[in-house]
């Protein structure tokens, strides 16, 4: 059985879980009353909301990028407006199904992989942005020792970039990525398997099937 390494800020009992990012919450000043809806694209965005007065945001329904981000917002007591297909670009169609008069607030990381906000703004939609957290490569991913025959699961472009800072992807590795955006961060000369769904569980099912 090949060892399975999961590079994520989440863990799985069947994998060697390596926390790939250190998260810092920034708590910028936000006037939630100016917006009708929130946009949540990660669990960290929901965690960042815990730094604010719950009464100010809890009645703002949220458009969430995935089932996981939706659950994180529901766990706060929030109402989910709609759930995207796991990619930022999928949110464009969702946003455009609402009147342009509606005002959105995107709670985001310092660095993001999708330009869906720019696309929507170009078409006249009102989207405010607040950087509520930033991430840096963790010491754990910098110092990890990976076996040559390992299965490597990457869950974000950042996890790939952080791994490649101090390590190389070998032809003996089996690489699984959790979506098309993450796949773009894999070097061109490396083969990989794209998960069926943008979930860690989907990646683990593939990992267990590899010999």
From TrEMBL:
<dbReference type="GO" id="GO:0033014">
    <property type="term" value="P:tetrapyrrole biosynthetic process"/>
</dbReference>
<protein>
    <submittedName>
        <fullName>Uroporphyrinogen III synthase HEM4</fullName>
    </submittedName>
</protein>
<dbReference type="InterPro" id="IPR036108">
    <property type="entry name" value="4pyrrol_syn_uPrphyn_synt_sf"/>
</dbReference>
<dbReference type="InterPro" id="IPR003754">
    <property type="entry name" value="4pyrrol_synth_uPrphyn_synth"/>
</dbReference>
<dbReference type="GO" id="GO:0004852">
    <property type="term" value="F:uroporphyrinogen-III synthase activity"/>
</dbReference>
<feature type="domain" description="Tetrapyrrole biosynthesis uroporphyrinogen III synthase">
    <location>
        <begin position="25"/>
        <end position="203"/>
    </location>
</feature>
<dbReference type="Pfam" id="PF02602">
    <property type="entry name" value="HEM4"/>
</dbReference>
